[in-house]
Amino acid sequence: MNVQVPNLDSPRDFQGNPVTPGLPIAMLAEVTHRCPLSCPYCSNPLELVRGQAELSAAEWADVFRQAAALGVLQVHVSGGEPASRRDLTQIVAAARDAGLYVNLITSGLGLTLARLRELDEAGVDHVQLSLQGVGRDMADRIGGLSGSWDRKMQVARWVGEIGFPLTLNAVVHLQNMESLPEMIDLALDMGARRIEVATVQFHGWADLNRRALMPTREQAVFARKVVNEARERLRGRMVIDYVPADHHAQFPKACMGGWGSTGLNVTPDGTVLPCHAAQTIPQLQFDNVRDRALGDIWTNGTAFNAFRGTAWMPEPCASCDRKTVDFGGCRCQAMAIAGDPAVTDPVCSLSPLNADLHAQLDADAAAAAPDDLTYRRMGKQS
Ligand code: SF4
Ligand code: SF4
């Protein structure tokens, strides 16, 4: 298939006016791809960056300074598992020195009470703890590591002891959707201020596990109901963020709030992406902070400009009122489903590919294979 991306020198809107990029608010800093867990829903790419290629703490410090100068206010320090970096404290301190609000996204594995205290001292403002499931059996099975649940629960107690503001981050899918009410209760018990419930997104390793993880239509309806009831019940006590299963929705999500509009992602080796899955689009070329200034990449990088504005949009998006609401959906999802990143996201009910997608979903549901999991690992899949 010969698929082109718009590749505009400068992005334009429908009237042909140039679009000036806004300022990024948040940066995802994937400081390593190493991780003791091997979740089959991991959105890290199939080709993981090896430890030797990772940016050093000094290089990260420079990236954080450039990001702050560009307008970034908060950095999400993530991975992989960021605690796999022995110099994590140094990295966090550099982010704080640059004036950024520091959110640490972790599975908890590799953190001790002493390390958490150091990270507190260094400037972590907020902790986001991932949840692979509720209870030993599900959490250890999905995380692919025996004992991970017990260690995570211990880390959660330490996080509370130190007093970090906590968000619990749960990825929900075919195999754990029924325990969503227990996940919400667990977040409350941990004293979390927020729980982020995200339906699995089929990027990276997750895409290898569609048949094992794709939630059913009934589960999507169930999750929506649970979230709405819990929001009502817990108003003022805990915030519930919810990323629904857009495969079963009428319209797609507004991915990244619009391509290249509010956030950017720096991978462990310094590659700068408009979203964490953008490398699944083979037609795009990405710049690296080792070769080019972050601000220049943000403003002029061809990958960032490829889907800015609205002029690139095909029909039915081109004549749709929602084009400035959902921006035509997710480019990586269009690539994954249609093999073309420049078409309307096929999960949209207005997409000409939507009927085929639903036929495929039905076929996948009939052939669901919960035990057929491809776990994420450093070496390429076998
Ligand atoms: S999703 Fe799982 S395997 Fe992937 S980085 Fe997070 S904890 Fe590690
Ligand atoms: S046609 Fe395009 S703009 Fe309209 S709802 Fe669907 S994805 Fe969004």
Compose a concise summary of this entry:
The chain is an alpha/beta fold and 382 residues long.
What does this structure look like?
The protein has helices at 57-70, 88-97, 113-122, 136-143, 148-162, 180-189, 210-213, 217-233, 294-300, 302-305, 331-338, 354-366, and strands spanning 26-30, 74-78, 101-106, 126-131, 166-172, 194-199, 239-243, 263-266, 272-273. With 382 residues, it is of the alpha/beta class. Strands 7-6-5-4-3-2-1-8-9 form a 9-stranded mixed β-sheet. The protein binds iron/sulfur cluster (2 copies). Residues 35, 37-39, 42, 44, 79-81, 107, 130, 376 line the site of one iron/sulfur cluster. One iron/sulfur cluster binds next to loops.
What descriptive keywords fit this protein?
binds iron/sulfur cluster; 31% helix; nine-stranded mixed sheet; alpha/beta; 382 residues
Task: Write the topology of this structure.
Layout: E1 26-30, H1 57-70, E2 74-78, H2 88-97, E3 101-106, H3 113-122, E4 126-131, H4 136-143, H5 148-162, E5 166-172, H6 180-189, E6 194-199, H7 210-213, H8 217-233, E7 239-243, E8 263-266, E9 272-273, H9 294-300, H10 302-305, H11 331-338, H12 354-366
Parallel strand pairs: 1-2, 1-8, 2-3, 3-4, 4-5, 5-6, 6-7
Antiparallel strand pairs: 8-9
Helix pairs in contact: 1-2, 2-3, 3-5
The site of one iron/sulfur cluster has 14 residues, from loops.
